[in-house]
Amino acid sequence: MTSLRPIALFNTLTRRVEPVSPLEPGAISLYTCGPTVYNFAHIGNLRTFLFQDLLKRTFQGAGYGVRHCMNITDVEDKIIRDSQKELPEAASNEERHQAMKALTDRFTQAFFEDLAAVGIPQEGFAYLPRATAYIPQMITLIQTLEERGLAYERDGSVYYRVAGLPHYGCLAHLDREGMQLGTSVDADEYDRESLSDFVLWKATKPGEPCWESPWGSGRPGWHIECSAMSMDIFGPRLDIHSGGIDLVFPHHENEIAQSEGATGEKWVNHWVHGEFLLVEGEKMSKSLGNFYTLRDLVEKGYDPITFRYAIQSNHYRKLLNFSFDGLKAAKNALDRIRTFRKRMEGAGDVAGDGPWKEALDPVERVEKARHAFWEAMADDLNTPEALAAIFTLVSDLNAQDDRIALIREERDFVLAFLDETNAIFQGWPHEEDNLDAEVEALIEQRKAAKAAKNWAESDRIRDLLKSMGILLEDRKDGTVGWKRA
Ligand code: AMP
Ligand code: ZN
């Protein structure tokens, strides 16, 4: 194994930047809370998923193997609200499940399309569990909590006994002394004013899909989903758990209570949270008209990879204000690196050893940039500084190249560094890779159009690909291959 670069991250549990030392040397287990699939993801959600992709790719670039699990929340209050409203009162449980699945399938598919467009392919995940596939594990976990005196049943619902866990509040740093012990809550989301017994299992209400359980028919609460999936997949301990900052309380606090309450041991070593995205200075909301999905940006003519850069060039723990000016600046920055890359890939090579070498050794410059890049990334993913190291190299070598061309080996050395950093940022690939990704994305869009029986759109994409010199090979089972004409 090549040597590992140590990486330090801010840990919400301790409120300090701490080195990550995985349970198994060189291998990171990473669990990130995935989307609730009842609508398209908005660009704020995507900020969080892009930060987690950066986190994963940084560890991979630093030499670690990463097993990344992201769940799909496909049963939850809002999903039920939106999927059941058209159904008649007399609908059967099976029909209710079908309606729920139709909604979540549709938005899970849309979600993966958006992720692919911003450079997060499905293949990058080791596990993508859907909550509805883990109901038995959730029931078993709740039973364990009951056995340990940490859960109690009331009217067919089961609640977590918060008073039973002395370290409840450790993640959100709740001041338990000053807090009132509240009553039990049935909602999945609530404020931190009082310590509430939260719901693990919800008794069925009329008009809801349900599962059978030892407490009668019902469905899981949101928090139990992640504890059950994470522990079923990774076991009782985990290196890194991540989500957006709004998940610290109550979601992650409750996850700790469930998992540690059941095992009696420490569950997660590092809790890593990404800050929120604001739009033009305000919280995103439909009524303010500043609520954007990735599809809205694409319609306005912006490239998803430019959006990726606009997000990732800012530190993940700083509140970020999204603006269209910011997207334009991101485009300029990307163009600068891409133009530089083309220049380095260009043919005009061999030049002699001029006296300039003493003033500026390109290989040494690359080493210096690489060092600065990794020093910044290793220090809590300091992307603004890491990118600054790339721009310094670009300026230095552009200035030098104006005077005398670099020799091929030197250019290859520069290109290797660009590949290494592109593996994390996905912004300045070798041109052909770029085209491949674009073709794959269009093929995915065409598949989606076909699935939606939108033949006009499917034909339009086929013609567009044809005009790009790409021939599609449709096969019987629906998969599509392609080749260059
Ligand atoms: P949800 O689909 O609502 O479960 O959210 C998916 C992820 O997006 C969670 O990790 C949230 O913390 C995160 N999130 C929600 N809104 C924002 C926002 N405005 N900025 C950044 N992350 C967000
Ligand atoms: Zn979760």
Topology, element by element:
Blueprint: E1 8-11, E2 16-19, E3 27-32, H1 43-61, E4 65-70, H2 77-84, H3 93-117, H4 135-147, E5 151-154, E6 157-160, E7 180-184, E8 194-197, E9 199-203, E10 218-220, H5 222-234, E11 238-244, H6 248-263, E12 268-274, E13 277-279, H7 294-299, H8 304-312, E14 320-322, H9 324-345, H10 356-359, H11 362-378, H12 383-403, H13 408-425, H14 431-451, H15 455-467, E15 470-474, E16 480-484
Parallel strand pairs: 3-4, 3-11, 7-8, 11-12, 13-14
Antiparallel strand pairs: 1-2, 5-6, 6-9, 9-10, 15-16
The structure holds adenosine monophosphate and zinc ion.
Adenosine monophosphate binds next to helix 1 and strand 11.
Structure description:
It is a single chain. The chain is of the alpha/beta class and 485 residues long. The protein has three domains: 258 residues, Rossmann fold (3-Layer(aba) Sandwich), CATH 3.40.50; 148 residues, Isoleucyl-tRNA Synthetase, Domain 1 (Orthogonal Bundle); 53 residues, no CATH class. It has a four-stranded parallel β-sheet with strand order 4-3-11-12, sandwiched between helices. Helix 8 crosses helix 9. The chain is globular. The mean pLDDT is 91. Zinc ion binds next to loops.
Give a quick rundown of the structure.
This protein has 485 residues and is of the alpha/beta class. It has helices at residues 43-61, 77-84, 93-117, 135-147, 222-234, 248-263, 294-299, 304-312, 324-345, 356-359, 362-378, 383-403, 408-425, 431-451, 455-467; strands at 8-11, 16-19, 27-32, 65-70, 151-154, 157-160, 180-184, 194-197, 199-203, 218-220, 238-244, 268-274, 277-279, 320-322, 470-474, 480-484.
